[in-house]
Specification:
Elements: H1 2-52, H2 62-70, H3 75-98, H4 107-131, H5 140-152, H6 157-180, H7 195-229, H8 238-244, H9 252-275
């Protein structure tokens, strides 16, 4: 009797133990992913500041960030650490999209996580190819123009490209507005933060989120222009979009402001790795 009861309890405990282990694994994956995202955004911001001040010729995008990492001592190991981080982010996003642990989540939210999982999987693959010595391939600017050119050749290509640009503008606007409204605080465990820490994290989230939204929206505008003019060369990647800010009436100072915002978002990503509810 006693022995059978003990075995019964063990069998009953196994599913809960397994779920707990899975949850801990996914939580660790999510935190590693946010940390990897933070590294890249900080480096992009630093590169953009150097461009604004006229002291840097590197691309202010993910490719430029990878090149900066590769040039450092133990750069190869750092690149592979990023590969693991991006892979973990793809795993975490994919799990949120597929696993039914939160039945109240809307289908749109799951679809968004699924899209993000695919994006980070592609980033993971590209980073792994670079770390393995495959080179950077085409720049972000060239890729954007190639994709736009291919789309414009399709039937109703102008409409498709214009719609993609409008979608990107909308995403940028949503990111900026949500950041300004501090919606990100709902996803953080602010109860474990001190008052001062919460103030700092809030400032990082607002400044970084708004800057990130501005970059997305600006890239979308260039895609719309490419559709209107039927010219794929009008499309720009992250690097060219950031450089375009120097051509505004305020000159390079707008780029400096946006670049600092990118750095802030990178630091906020580290804060998310620490305090986000995963």
């Amino acid at each position: 009797m006693t022995t059978s009861r003990v075995h019964g309890r063990r069998r009953a405990a196994r599913p809960g133990t397994r779920r707990s282990a899975e949850r801990q694994t996914l939580t660790a994956a999510g935190r590693a992913g946010f940390a990897a995202r933070g590294v890249v955004y900080i480096l992009i911001g630093v590169l953009a500041v150097r461009i604004a001040l006229g002291s840097g010729g590197e691309s202010a995008d993910r490719q430029g960030a990878l090149a900066q990492i590769a040039a450092q001592p133990f750069g190869k190991a750092m690149l592979w650490a990023l590969v693991v981080g991006f892979g973990c982010m793809a795993l975490w996003r994919g799990a949120r999209a597929v696993l039914g642990r939160e039945p109240r989540r809307k289908a749109a939210s799951r679809a968004l996580d699924g899209g993000r999982a695919l994006f980070y999987a592609s980033v993971c693959w590209a980073t792994a190819a670079y770390a393995a010595g495959g080179g950077q391939g085409s720049s972000g600017n060239a890729q954007s123009q190639d994709w736009t050119a291919s789309a414009l050749e399709l039937s109703y290509g102008r409409v498709l490209v214009g719609a993609a640009g409008c979608l990107l503008i909308g995403i940028g606007a949503v990111l900026a507005v949500r950041a300004a409204m501090r919606r990100f605080l709902r996803q953080l465990d602010t109860g474990t933060m001190s008052h001062r820490t919460k103030q700092v994290v809030t400032a990082l989230g607002v400044g970084g989120g708004v800057a990130r939204g501005v970059v997305f929206a600006a890239a979308g505008i260039f895609i719309v222009v490419a559709a209107v003019r039927f010219d794929p060369h009008e499309a720009k990647g992250v690097d060219a979009t950031l450089r375009s800010f120097t051509q505004t009436p305020v000159g390079p100072w707008l780029l400096v402001a946006v670049a600092i915002g990118m750095v802030l978002f990178g630091v906020f990503s580290f804060a998310s790795a620490r305090w986000r509810r995963l």
